[in-house]
Amino acid sequence: MDKIIIKGGRPLKGTVNISGAKNAVLPIMAATLLASGKFTIKNVPDLLDVKTMSNLLRIIGAKVQYEDHTLTIDTSECNFFEAPYELVKTMRASIYVLGPLLARFSKAKVSLPGGCAIGPRPVDLHIKAFEQLGADIELNKGYIVASADKLKGTHVNFDISSVGATGNILMAAVLSDGRTVIENAAREPEISALANFLVKMGADISGIGTDRLLINGVKELHVVDFEILPDRIEAGTFLIAAAITGGEIELRSVDPSHVSSLTGKLRNSGICIEEGESSIYCKAPERVRAVNITTSSYPGFPTDLQAQWLALMCVANGSSVITENIFVDRFTHVAELRRLGAQIELKKNIVVIRGIDTLNGAPVMSTDLRASASLILAGLKAEGQTEVLRVYHIDRGYESIEKKLANLGATIRREEGGY
Ligand code: EPU
């Protein structure tokens, strides 16, 4: 297993291009199952999760090719309606094929995802809403086995705002009979991107970007070309990387409106942020002020940037409090950051951090994607050498992070081996 080795202490400087959004491309890849033919999807990041979703689509019978950040997916010969445990256990987003398979082929068998490093992550909301659409669902030997002659429009009111459940039900509803209303729908930009993709395919959806989606089912959808929006979590990670190193960077190919909850907090912490149409300039002081955050669904502060913000607060001037409201157990990075000298107290879903001058490099272990990012950011600040082990997690969601950081002046390299 590869590891990333960082010598900390260098302020980042320069420009960095942000890649396409992982959490948009995954449901959009699944949505190609809703029509027969050849799709072209551009600005697709080169990520392990994209490879995993490509393999899942291949199992279902699609032909998938990836070249130069462009995916072509031919769904004309899909004939196997199953997502096996071996794939689902490595990527929960596999559950996104349930809605499209059920809508187009009237049946689907998808492994239950099980636990994961950031908490229990149930799929009850998906299952309940599919039942409301008229699907028969059985849980059998670790699999969700679903069937429906024809899905029927319904009224879904989610108890919790869920990105995955909103996307899954949306994909099923577009080919259902009649009208579906989704209340308390997720408003994340990736869900809007999925909805826009479906509209381009011929779906009738209104309320995109709001928490109330209205879908009038159509008989058929058609293939399209589509371009993936920039990854707001990658953008946020680079902004925090600049902040933790006292750097000065510019992000290109980014949508500033998608990271405004973060840029607001960065400004409060003393950082100069200037937004262009598709760029963000960021200049950080040597040490930022401590600022509290509470994670919530979009447009609130994203849980996917909590670990990175926590790393920044470890070296901020003053004490801060982080409250994690989406995945209440998402704190595996805390113990690793303590190995670098961080002063952190964790009680349930609340963390209190006492900022110190600097961290000290040490070997640390990655436990999940965003935790890995947080450890890399901490390593960029730490004195001496930090080795981040098990970096396959980072390859799931960041394209060439070590190369992008090296281009910004960081002393960072990847080495094969480790455990
Ligand atoms: N929830 C339920 N039941 C369900 C579904 C969700 O109780 O059936 C709860 C979850 O346990 C959580 C909350 O609802 O407390 C929100 O979870 P959500 O369903 O929105 O999360 P997700 O769809 O599983 C996506 C992203 C995550 C991101 C979350 C929250 C993808 C592929 N994944 O997950 O991304 O953290 O939304 O924004 O889009 C990541 O990229 O590192 C990542 C984990």
Topology of helices and strands:
Blueprint: E1 3-7, E2 13-17, H1 22-31, E3 38-42, H2 48-60, E4 63-67, E5 70-74, E6 82-83, H3 85-88, H4 98-105, E7 107-111, H5 124-132, E8 136-140, E9 143-147, E10 155-157, H6 163-173, E11 179-183, H7 189-200, E12 204-206, E13 212-216, E14 225-227, H8 232-245, E15 248-252, H9 260-268, E16 272-275, E17 279-283, E18 293-294, H10 306-314, E19 319-323, H11 332-339, E20 343-347, E21 350-354, E22 363-365, H12 369-381, E23 385-389, H13 392-397, H14 401-407, E24 411-415
Bound molecules: uridine-diphosphate-2(N-acetylglucosaminyl) butyric acid.
Account of the protein in words:
It is built from 14 helices and 24 strands. It is an alpha/beta fold. The strands form 6 sheets. A 4-stranded mixed sheet has the order 22-23-1-24, covered by helices on one side. A 4-stranded mixed sheet has the order 2-15-17-16. The longest helix is centred in the middle third of the chain and has 14 residues, at 232-245. The model has no long low-confidence stretch (mean pLDDT 96). Uridine-diphosphate-2(N-acetylglucosaminyl) butyric acid is lined by residues 23, 26, 92-93, 121-126, 160, 162-165, 186, 190, 303-304, 326-327, 369-370, 397.
Oligomeric description of these chains: single chain
Task: Estimate the mean pLDDT confidence.
Answer: 96
Can you count the beta strands?
24
Count of discrete alpha- or pi-helical segments spanning 4 or more residues: 14
What structural class is derived from the secondary structure elements? alpha/beta
What coarse outline follows from CA principal-axis ratios?
Answer: elongated
Please summarize the sheet with the most strands. 4 strands, mixed
> In percent, how much strand structure appears in the residues?
25-35%
Rg is 21 Å
Uncertain runs: none
Strand order of the biggest β-sheet = 22-23-1-24
Helix content: 25-40%
End-to-end C-alpha gap: 6 Å
Bound molecules: uridine-diphosphate-2(N-acetylglucosaminyl) butyric acid
